[in-house]
């Protein structure tokens, strides 16, 4: 079966509830009727309102979660709490979480099965930094991250994942990977998944994330192994995000 393209808007620490309402009020009526799965990832205070507005047409994802269902973890949010709101997915392992907040592969290995058990679709982010890319370590870094992050996930559950390849050197820098670089890295990720589960190789959707814009989205998503995009800065304006969604729907 062909993989349905998937485009996620990671708003990071942007947009109040009022701004979320304004964004969705402009975006939702203009979305393609079919051909692409669209996800928005607002900050925690806007999740409930986003779920109300998006209904079934657009999935709402959180930007992080704790692996425990409850406990003495001040400032954290659990998967069951998110599901109660109607949240359907969660971004895990974003490079900013790894870099600024000490997110470890060991923690991610616990979070992935916890998310799936609660009914959340994990969007797992992996990627290399500039020094690793320039040092020819991309394959080693991606393989190591995948092996560690998927360590506690059963092979049968792999196809339920969405994986986002986000070269750290291309996030917010204006220096995006070429379509060929994106395809090469994502093909490697797909092959690594296949070592665990051959059926998951064709089922798992793998996104590119890193300075995706209306001007480069189509050539990136048109690559044979690229199934969509995790969009940062360009997802903050409906006028920028919509052309990316439309490019994915045409892919």
Could you walk me through the main structural features you see in this protein, from its secondary elements to its overall organization?
The protein contains 11 helices and 8 strands. With 251 residues, the protein is α/β, with parallel strands linked by helices. It has one domain (6-250): Alpha-Beta Barrel (TIM Barrel), CATH 3.20.20. An 8-stranded parallel sheet has the order 7-6-5-4-3-2-1-8. Helix 1 packs parallel to helix 2 (47-54) and helix 7 (138-149) runs parallel beside helix 8 (179-196). It is globular, with a radius of gyration of 17 Å.
Quickly describe the structure.
With 251 residues, the protein is of the alpha/beta class.
The N- to C-terminal Cα distance equals: 15 Å
Query: Per CATH, what is the topology?
Result: TIM Barrel
Which radius of gyration do the C-alpha atoms yield? Answer: 17 Å
> How much is the average pLDDT?
96
- Describe the biggest sheet? 8 strands, parallel
Which structural category fits the helices and strands? alpha/beta
Quote the beta fraction.
5-15%
CATH architecture: Alpha-Beta Barrel
Q: Mind telling me the CATH superfamily name?
A: Aldolase class I
General shape: globular
Kindly state the number of beta strands: 8
H/E series:
EHEHEHEHHEHHEHHEHEH
Measured as a percent range, the helix fraction is 40-55%
